[in-house]
From TrEMBL:
Gene3D superfamilies: 1.20.1270.280, 3.10.490.20, P-loop containing nucleotide triphosphate hydrolases (3.40.50.300), Region D6 of dynein motor (1.10.8.720). Residues 257-396 form the Dynein heavy chain AAA lid domain. This is Dynein heavy chain region D6 P-loop domain-containing protein. It comes from Oncorhynchus mykiss (Rainbow trout). Residues 112-225 form the Dynein heavy chain region D6 P-loop domain. One of its GO terms (biological process) is microtubule-based movement. Residues 403-659 form the Dynein heavy chain C-terminal domain. InterPro entries: AAA_lid_11, AAA_lid_11_sf, DHC, Dynein_C, Dynein_C_barrel, Dynein_heavy_D6_P-loop, P-loop_NTPase.
Length: 664
């Protein structure tokens, strides 16, 4: 059935609905979109669809899990909230709240023969907590730590051997940086099982997750991991735990220091949490860490003590330009950093009462008081923050929540059993995995187009070796190679399932991918794509059609679909080369001017004199006003907005012209 709500419902979501309609309790779901399009649109665009009323009879006809399936099909960004609510309702809230790691209890559970392994996660360093534990356990003098790396292996071996005899605590940090020594460590841990070490001896290890870390050590040890705090509130709470009472009261101007400390904690937390917005947050993800915060805090205290008037410019430059800015390599990211520091570090922040730190009234610098009063205020902040706290559009949150949901789905898929047992393979249980894959493979084989006639096209274009024709021939070669790979791998897979050939590891991988409706890695090599198998296959047909038509007519199309090229950069370079030849100028002097069309594609009947018309591009994080030809804020739930056809026009010395205009 065709998508009846194509104006607001994406094809991938409609694919989910059509699949859901096949399940016993969901027959008629597709028809209800035709029956209640407005009601479904209201539900789809609501802020909390998991609690909103479903259209028609679906409100009373769905239990909690069935409602979750509808949310999963249409609003993936709300899946995490549904899952959390489902777990709380059925198991209890303690299963969704991360427990506090009690390291003292871990030591009591351990023996001299069990290594204690910290599985590291970004932004969390267990060293400080371990030092405090050693202090509390009276082992601080017998605590020996070593960060592993090149040339550290002999020292680490010696430390373990001495520790076994003398009863030391040995901490080997960052095992993932010394993987070549891991087999030796494996043997040392194996020896511990046979020896009788000193009763006080403990071996502590820390490592980032890595496939080459010895499994035997993991099996013998106790594994611990601490997730980095999530959300502005959790990050601020953690930072206020880092600042001791002595630090909090050491500054000669305590009121100013405490207000600016709060602003600094907020600044640090915003920078860390902004990465959840993916490319809408930072152009490049940076590893801001606690040492950035600690150095900035010391600088702030020092400058307040030394200067009568607060040197705002120097303080802002050292914190945002040097300290945090030392990580930043992108100009736009640097501009963002400067904007934040200018908002939080200003005269009003220390002079005005309840200075607002965002457009929302919830976040402000509280009334001055002891450290406990600041902690109390932080505990009252919302657990999950609105995108506007970061100065972001409400839609910005949706992309990060969809990414989180996809990670959850991928994990669930990887955990499902890979073999159908004989007991469940009967008719009552439905088709087996093998039958399902055979059915899907046959469907893909039927849908993919035939090869484009490369030799015929080459002969046809022999008289005109223009850069664009060279690009066409290269694209035909790549798509023909991909189509051949798809066809041969599916035919081989069919033979493998029927037992006619041996299933190789790549065929096995293709089998699991097709069953999970994912694109096999063997096929994705041609061009990157995040689409699931069904929409990827449709997309492939459209891509091949563009080049087949071009090859057939031997004339470039009036409108080019840039996304359809496997190597768009090559195509754009070819356009510049054609223009350079046409005007007898050097290709190095050319750059682009972009003119967005104000008329519909139907009215663009002829190609431009210079450059090309490009269709099918999208805006992310903004909308497009066709009437006034300008950017506008995106509508709710509109993550990407189609932009009209753009004229990519090669112009000479574009950068120099722009510079001379600014000088004038």
């Amino acid at each position: 059935m065709e998508n009846p709500c194509s104006s607001w419902l994406a094809e991938s979501n409609w694919d989910n609905v059509t699949e859901l309609d096949k399940l016993a309790n969901f027959h008629g779901l597709m028809a209800s979109f035709e029956q209640y399009p407005r009601d479904w649109n209201l539900w789809y665009t609501s802020a909390g669809p998991e609690t909103a009323q479903l259209p028609g009879e679906w409100e009373n006809g769905c239990n909690e899990l069935q409602r979750m399936l509808i949310v999963r099909s249409l609003r993936q960004d709300r899946v995490a909230f549904c899952v959390a609510a489902f777990i709380i309702n059925n198991l209890g809230s303690r299963f969704v709240e991360p427990p506090v790691l009690d390291m003292k209890a871990v030591v009591e559970d351990s023996t001299t023969k069990t290594p204690l392994i910290f599985v590291l996660s970004p932004g969390v360093d267990p060293t400080g907590a371990l030092l405090q534990l050693a202090e509390a356990s009276g082992m601080s003098r017998k605590f020996h730590a070593l960060s592993l790396g090149q040339g550290q292996a002999p020292i680490a071996t010696r430390m373990i051997k001495e520790g076994v005899k003398s009863g030391h605590w040995v901490f080997l940090a960052n095992c993932h940086l010394c993987l070549s020594w891991m087999p030796q460590l494996d043997k040392l841990v194996e020896q511990l099982q046979v020896e009788e070490p000193h009763p006080d001896f403990r071996l502590w290890l820390s490592s980032s997750p890595h496939p080459d870390f010895p499994i035997a050590i993991l099996q013998a040890g106790i594994k611990m991991t601490t997730e980095p705090p999530r959300g502005v509130k959790s990050n601020m709470k953690r930072l206020y735990q880092l600042v001791t009472e002595a630090q909090f009261t050491r500054c000669a101007r305590p009121v100013l220091y405490r207000k600016l400390l709060f602003a600094l904690c907020f600044f640090h937390s915003i920078l860390l949490e902004r990465k959840k917005f993916l490319q809408l947050g930072w152009n490049i993800i940076y590893g801001f860490n606690d040492s950035d915060f600690e150095v900035s805090e010391s600088l702030m205290s020092l400058y307040l003590d030394e200067y009568e008037e607060i040197p705002w410019d120097a303080l802002k430059y050292l914190i945002a330009g040097v300290n945090y800015g030392g990580h930043v390599t992108d100009d736009f990211d640097r501009r963002l950093l400067t904007t934040y520091i200018n908002d939080y570090f200003c005269e009003a922040a220390v002079a005005a009462p309840f200075f607002k730190l965002s457009s929302l009234s919830t976040y402000y610098i509280p009334r001055d008081g002891p450290q406990s009063s600041y902690r109390e205020y932080i505990s009252l902040l919302p657990a999950t923050e609105h995108p506007e706290v970061f100065g972001q559009h409400p839609n910005a949150d949706i992309a990060s929540q969809i990414a989180e949901a996809r990670t959850l789905f991928d994990t669930l898929l990887s955990l499902q059993p890979q073999v159908t047992s004989g007991a469940t393979a009967g008719a009552a249980a439905g088709p087996t995995r093998e039958n399902k894959v055979l059915e899907l493979a046959a469907d893909v084989l039927q849908k993919i187009p035939g090869l484009i006639d490369y030799e015929g096209t080459r002969v046809l274009l022999a008289d005109d070796p223009s850069p664009l024709n060279v690009v066409l021939l290269q694209e035909i070669q790549r798509y023909n190679a991909l189509l051949h790979t798809i066809r041969s791998s599916l035919i081989e897979l069919e033979k493998g399932i029927k037992g006619l050939v041996v299933m190789s590891s790549s065929l096995e991988e293709t089998f699991h991918c097709i069953f999970d409706a994912r694109v096999p890695p063997l096929w994705v090599k041609a061009y990157p794509s995040l689409k699931p198998l069904a929409s990827w296959t449709r997309d492939l047909c459209q891509r091949v059609e563009q080049f087949a038509r071009w090859a057939e007519t031997a004339h470039p199309p009036t409108l080019f679909w840039l996304s359809g090229f496997t190597f768009p950069t090559g195509f754009l370079t070819a356009v510049l080369q054609s223009s350079a030849r046409q005007h007898s100028v050097s290709v190095d002097t050319l750059s682009w001017e972009f003119i967005v069309a104000t008329v519909d594609d139907n009215n663009l009947l002829f190609p431009p004199k210079d450059g090309v018309f490009i269709r099918g591009l999208y805006l992310e994080g903004a909308g497009w006003d066709k009437k006034n030809s300008c950017l506008v804020e995106a509508k709710p739930m509109q993550l990407v907005c189609p932009i009209p056809t753009i004229h990519f026009k090669p112009v000479e010395n574009r950068k120099k012209i722009a510079k001379s205009k600014t000088k004038k």
